[in-house]
Amino acid sequence: MSANSGPTSSRLLAGLTEAEDAEKNIIQMSKNATNFDIDSILDNVTVNMAHNKDNSQSSNPDVESMDVTVRAESPLLFEDSSQEAPVPEPESMQFTDRPTCMGMPAKDLKRIPNCWATNPFLMESGTRHLKLYNTSHKGPGPPPPKSTTYYDAWDSHHVRLPCSTENLYPVTERGRKSLEKRWELIRSSLLMKMDNEYDLQEAILTYNSRYCKKWSFQKLGNFFSQASDSYKKKFFGTTLPRMVDLALDLPNICTQPIPLLCHQRSCKVTMTQQQIACLLSNAFFCTFPRRNSKGPNSEYSNYPNINFSSLFNGAGGWHNSPFVEKFKTLLHYFERVCENMPTGTVTFERRCLSDFPRWEKSPCTLCGLHLSNEGRIESDGAGLLQVDFANRYLGGGVLSSGLVQEEILFCICPELIVSKLFVEKLDDNECVVITGAEQFSSYTGYADTYTWGGNHIDTTTRDDFGRLCKQLVAMDATCYQKSSNQFKTTSIRRELNKAFCGFYCDMDPEHSPAVATGNWGCGAFGGDPLFKGLLQLMAAATVGRDLCYFTFNDEELMQQLHEMHSFIKENKMRVSDLWNIIISYNKQVIESRNSESSSIFKFIQDTHNLGTDED
Prior knowledge:
Blueprint: H1 5-33, H2 38-42, E1 101-103, E2 128-131, E3 168-173, E4 176-181, H3 182-190, H4 197-206, H5 218-226, H6 229-248, H7 250-253, E5 267-272, H8 273-284, H9 309-312, H10 322-339, E6 345-352, E7 369-372, H11 377-380, E8 385-390, H12 405-412, H13 419-422, E9 430-435, E10 441-444, E11 451-455, E12 471-476, H14 489-503, E13 515-517, H15 529-543, E14 547-550, H16 555-570, H17 575-590, H18 600-614
Parallel strand pairs: 2-5, 7-14, 8-12, 8-13, 13-14
Antiparallel strand pairs: 1-7, 3-4, 5-6, 6-9, 9-12, 10-11
């Protein structure tokens, strides 16, 4: 240490001490503000609440019901008005002048709607596009359905709606068995007065009687045992009756069959936010038929859960756990739409491609790259194509206990959840693009630190068809039980093809937004962040799109990606060059277990420099 560093060091230590004291005061104030009698709450909670670390997401990330580890440490009291708990500033953000961004300026990234030459809604791409509403509607309020009268399609190509006359339910009366219309039973059950969670549970089980001994509703009970009296009064007195009315209005709101977006079939469906709210209200009340069976031969075994029973059931969390925060987030959505129904539309597109680049022959060079170790895809990636690190069963564990990137996204934008109703699990050559989903909530934290952050007003511009100018692409990465497998040729081609499918656009690259992404397929999926970043750069190059990459507070990764991207650009390396180097890397480093060149970037450098020396 130099002689001149003494005063600076003293000031820094003094600043750190003051910051630590301030943080302690904030935490103590938080504790005082949330002081309550824990024992009185725990008395109302079912005893069996033990959490098993082995049930975390990392145990089987490819399963639709994947969970995350839960702690009893949420710092937010359950009150009617959300009070955001103080979050200590990340260490990497304190007292530092280190850059938080690298690469091309964020202002130079193409964003929608400004980069659009033509609204994609008007483009005829050859993909079947079904609009479930009256597109000529220009008046106030939600657009009415396309058909003024309800008609049904009870078949394997459409969603089996609970209001269908073909939806029958076995009933035994006076020793005689008969089949009755299930919708009438649903109506009579939900129209009964419900004053608490036990009444709600009884109503749902009335038309799901075969699950009386299988569904525990313990999480639902835990949530309301911790809710304030004023919250419960408003929910059961106002919000829930409105949800019932919305759910039972299904035959008047969704008047035509909803197509299933099946595998290996490109198709689009656009529906109103009111139609989505109606369908999600039915999902909350667990009314969708044939969607509770999980057998491998069941009709919807290739579809995600849609009924909320999987969210209500099982051993719940401790006081103010992420389970509680998830319930707050989702119920806030229903409160919002029941008080003021949004009037826009949302488009869901299943994209299936058969033609992919020949990666070993591709002449493309990398496009621009903006890097940030702060910020989030959903907020700082506004106007960009935002990547959902998806499960092949869309939504992952949003209706169980999952709370990582995809589940959080589906919680704060609950309209995404309706995709679980009609989108079959993704194949290797498929992705789903969703345009116009609104964000209703804010949040802080991640996984077991997730906390609902209160109401969010989405100010995104709408297009002429009522859709918010925001696009999300759900693309699932491969889960590697053995990390070395990601460098095998078949794995590399699969991930490149998947990213290409997600980044592909019918429009000219000059009019396509940049892609907002991050550590896709990493974490519990076992992917190497630097390598997965390289693959996404290669895929983006073939469609001519820049990348906006969020490293989520990983400054070292940001630096590495920047240096690797700069080296590749400066040396004018093509995608085909990178493909061949990666294949060599697998043979010379991974398969031979050579640790001298463990980094893919270092191997790229060494290989290129060796080739230059030989020339």
